[in-house]
Amino acid sequence: MGPDSFRTAGLKSTLEDMGINVNDWGNIEPKCTEIKRHPNKSIRHLSETSGWASALEEAAFRAAKTTHMPIFLGGDHSLSIGTVPGVTRYAVETGREQFVLWLDAHPDIHTLQTTTSGNLHGTPVAYFTGQPGFENAYPGLKHPIKPANICMMGIRSVDPSENTHLLESQIEVHDMRAIDERGVVAPLQGFLDRVIKANGVLHVSLDVDFLEPDIAPAVGTTVPGGATFREAHLIMEILCDSGLVTSLDIVELNPFLDDRGRTAKLMVDLCASLLGRKVLDRPTSSH
């Protein structure tokens, strides 16, 4: 019900009021897949997740190819198992390098072997960076993303196996301590400069739990100490100014946990900031 909650919160009308032409493709239907089994008995809904991923990969590729700025609305972050490979396939077709900005409390870099919760929304980054162990479980991955092309911000809940993986990888990670110490501008701009240098395209994956739970309670995986209202909007405004973002995930909204729809409305407002809504125009001054 997360995607419909974004609709109810006025995502389409908000963007249209900004002069953006919006085409709602509706909800994607998962592909039917055979029942899959895995030696890790904690894993849940593997067949269903694989079916969704296959359908989403095709939809994301088509959306990237035929629209200016696809926005993917999802329940949990397993959505990115399909969307990121889909937009990456289009980037490869057009000779561009794919980058990902991961805004989340969690790195979601478990493999099917390391997850102990069995929640597959904890596996997307491991999958689309080409880590082993997803063969015959998730759709075949044709174009893995280089770990060095990923930047994570807002991280503050990391399992031991994920921590080991991150330390051994080239993924750029800015946890909340780093953001407290340095702010969001310098690390984000440094990453965007790398995207520009590579003539890359940028996918942003925004999880509700990136935000402080006091302002965004509608998520089942709340972690205290998240990004503030202004930090989140500043990130979106900087991304907008960069002109680099070509696709967006908005995930993990649970309307049953919301307070009069305020989390959904905040996410809509963040999306609007990313796509150009400003309080003031700021012309360049010669002084």
Structural class: alpha/beta
Shape: globular
| CATH-defined fold name | Arginase, Chain A
Mean pLDDT: 94
The residue fraction in helices comes out at 25-40%
Adjacency order of strands in the biggest sheet:
1-6-5-2-3-4
As for the number of domains, it is 1
> How many beta-strand runs?
6
Strand content: 5-15%
C-alpha Rg, in Å? 18 Å
Q: Work out the helix count.
A: 10
C-alpha termini separation: 51 Å
CATH homologous group name: Ureohydrolase domain
Q: SSE order, as H and E?
A: HHHEHEHEHEHHEHEH
Describe what you observe in this structure.
The protein is an alpha/beta fold. Helices cover 38% and strands 11% of the residues. The protein has one domain (2-274): Arginase, Chain A. It is built from ten helices and six strands. It has a six-stranded parallel β-sheet with strand order 1-6-5-2-3-4, sandwiched between helices. Helix 5 (124-128) links the parallel strand 2 (98-103) and strand 3 (150-155). Helix 8 runs parallel beside helix 9. The protein starts with a helix and ends in a 13-residue tail after the last helix.
